[in-house]
Amino acid sequence: MRRKIFKNSITAIVIFFGMVGFAQNQNLFTLQIDSFYAKIKEQKKPQIIDARSSEEFANNHINDAVNFNLETKNYAQYVAKLDKSQPVFIYSIGAYRSGLLAKELLKNGFTEVHDLEGGIAAWIGVGKPFYSNSKSKLSLGEYKKVIADNNNVLVDIGSRYCAACKKVKPILEAIKTQYGETIKIVEIDLEENPQVIADLKTVKVFPTLILYRNGKIVFKKDGLSDLKKDVDLVLASN
Fold first, then answer.
1. Residue 162 and residue 103 share a domain
2. Residues 128 and 177 in one domain
3. Longest dimension (CA), the chain
4. What is the tally of structural domains in the chain?
5. Which of 99, 132, 165 is at the close of a domain?
6. Shortest CA distance to 104 belongs to which of 120, 119, 84?
7. Angstrom distance (rounded) from CA 129 to CA 209
8. Mean pLDDT of the 45-65 span
9. CATH number at residue 18
10. Cis before 129 (ω within 30)
11. Nearest-CA neighbor of 152 among 238, 225, 221?
12. Across 27-31, 101-105, 217-221, least confident range
């Protein structure tokens, strides 16, 4: 009898903590850019957190955002300044750092947390207002001229802080080695060219790869999957 009661107690505890975890996840919303932006505009004083490093934040960020993450030295002090009863909006480059911070805030009593799908790439990539500490080296007009002046142009859009973006580089090198001057490769990073990324209004995530042929888009990839294979197929059709 005691054994049965003990087992029932354990089951009840497991169910309780499962329900707590479910409730927390119910208050965590990963939103696409339009919904995220609309929610922010509903707030008089939106609580926006940039969960990237201080170096990334200094380069560019959403207007009125504060910068901290779980590794920040004075993390508790930043959290203490937030209103737990009001929505919190978090972003990073993708969703890793922002996701970790979002879950931690929910554990600590915050009632509603919104994580931006696509992170800063989605925000700047559709032309939402942002701060940048530098002017883009490449203008939209110069970008369009490169596309017009070359038969085949492969554009790589990303950030030096993006882990997935680093995996694109050896693939680009392989393409460059194989095809030489047959294809023009243009690398655009957020840190040096934020405005042209905003002006294109086509980027949702990093990396974004776009292949142009004779001025027209042949494919646009959110991520690097099958990049070399897809380029080979297009150039083989000459």
1. no
2. no
3. 83
4. 2
5. 132
6. 84
7. 23
8. 97
9. 3.40.250.10
10. no
11. 238
12. 27-31
Residue identified by tokens 């329900």 is 19
Examine the domain organization and report whether 14 and 88 are in the same domain: yes
Token pair, residue 98, equals 């922002």
Asked if 178 and 97 sit in the same domain, the reply is no
DSSP-assigned letters across all residues of the chain: -HHHHHHHHHHHHHHHHHHHHHHHHHTEEEE-HHHHHHHHHT-SS-EEEE-S-HHHHHHEEETT-EE--TT-TTHHHHHHTS-TTS-EEEE-SSSHHHHHHHHHHHHTT-S-EEEETTHHHHHHHTT--EEESS--SS-HHHHHHHHHH-SEEEEEEE-TT-HHHHTHHHHHHHHHHHHGGGSEEEEEETTT-HHHHHHHT---SSSEEEEEETTEEEEEEES-TTHHHHHHHHHTT-
Report pLDDT digits (tens) over 202-232.
999 999 999 999 999 999 999 888 999 999 9
Q: Domain range holding 53?
A: 2-132
Block residue for tokens 């882990």: 163
* pTM of the model as a whole: 0.85
- Same domain, yes or no: 34 and 127: yes
